[in-house]
Amino acid sequence: MVDAALKDGTADRRCVFEVFARRLPDGRRYGVAAGLGRFLTLLADFRFGDEEIAFLRDRNVVDAATGDWLAGYRFTGDIRAYREGEIYFPNSPILQIEGTFAEAVLLETLALSVFNADSAIASAAARMVSAADHRPLAEMGSRRTGEWNAVAAARAAYIAGFGATSNLEAGRTWGIPTMGTAAHAFTLLHDSEESAFRSQLDALGDATTLLVDTFDIPAAVETAVRLTEGRLGAVRIDSGDLPSVVASVRAQLDRLGATSTKITVTNDLDEYTIAALRAAPVDSYGVGTSVVSGSGHPAAGMVFKLVAHSSPDGDWVPVAKKSAEKATVGGRKEAGRRLRNGVATAEVVRVGGGVGAGADERTLLVPVVTGGEVDEAFLGVRGVDAARAHHRGAKAELPADAERIGRGDPAIPTLAL
Fold first, then answer.
1. Is residue 234 a contact partner of residue 283, using CB atoms and an 8 Å limit?
2. Would strands 333-340 and 343-351 be described as parallel, antiparallel, or unpaired?
3. What are residue 327's phi and psi, to 5 degrees?
4. Distance from the CA of 196 to the CA of which of 80, 183, 217, 257 falls in 20 to 30 A?
5. What is the pTM of this model?
6. What is the tens place of the pLDDT at every residue in 304-354?
7. Smallest Cα–Cα separation from 340: which of 398, 385, 296, 382?
8. What pLDDT shows up at residue 210?
9. Which structural domains are found in the chain, ordered by start?
10. Are 335 and 352 in contact (CB under 8 A)?
11. How far apart are alpha carbons 29 and 407 in whole angstroms?
12. Main-chain phi, psi angles of 17, to 5 degrees
């Protein structure tokens, strides 16, 4: 497209592109916008080097003139976005990019690859946080996704309310609290379960978490309590009928005097199994496959669409796709969250530049890039902490039934004005 636009003279036409989801995953009541900080970090270094341009030229993807243009590429436009961690609904314009056609259209794959993955994970994680009902969750899915996706997934889950991750690179890069537990392999390495427990306790102290389901759970619990004289930090259970096993282990711990020892559970948890454990004496959860895969919805369904371009006289011309089931609404948007007594009642999307949020609305789109310069407040550890805090506040605005895990319609309607 860029090659053709440079040839026909439309490459420098000012355009507005928007990223949005036409619908939420089936049955979901809201989504969580995540990935903004990662996108902005990548945008700051989005360039075409000599090797990339040579590759494109060698395969006749672009001609020499386009190659020269790519060599000097740097995004110089403006971007507004929903704050990271914000709640979104169908047709919420979570990202709005204004620039020349050529410089803006090149960002489509970058934007969608980040926002689709991160928003899917954050949306699933937020549901799990609701299901856990204030009990802490740890992200433990690094071995269930790609190596760099694992770091991004830990970040998205943390923004949505998870308390820690087992991914140390995510902790190093994004400042996320880290944790870990021993695997069954460590127990099997030793001549006995007791010797494995002794080794772990010698290395990490009584506050550690011992994995008690390698062989016989009651025997392991008894050994763990005896070795720590009732001061063990926690036990982890990774198998079995969790509600009944957890109840039995809690009773045994209390009977043995280990009343302060906590119970953490793993074993392919998702929001539904977590909700089913709400009445069980579980103290914390470790979630792997389900959270890093979006709990059955690995992509958020975001699309990147041209909604307006400039005319020769400088006016904005709304443009829209009209095909069945994939129609879009043309024109630059403004978005606000309508509130009544602090509770969200509607997502209001207004078409037309310069029309801001109403008096009873919270403005959703904020500047994140101006003249090609990224606002550093959205980057790094500071950006993650701000996103996590913002998500907590935005989620608290939702009506009570939004946190129900069962299938339902979006928690609030999207009004197009």
1. yes
2. antiparallel
3. -65, 150
4. 257
5. 0.95
6. 999 999 988 888 999 988 876 777 888 999 999 999 999 999 999 999 755
7. 398
8. 98
9. 2-121+297-401 (3.20.140.10), 129-292 (3.20.20.70)
10. no
11. 8
12. -110, 145
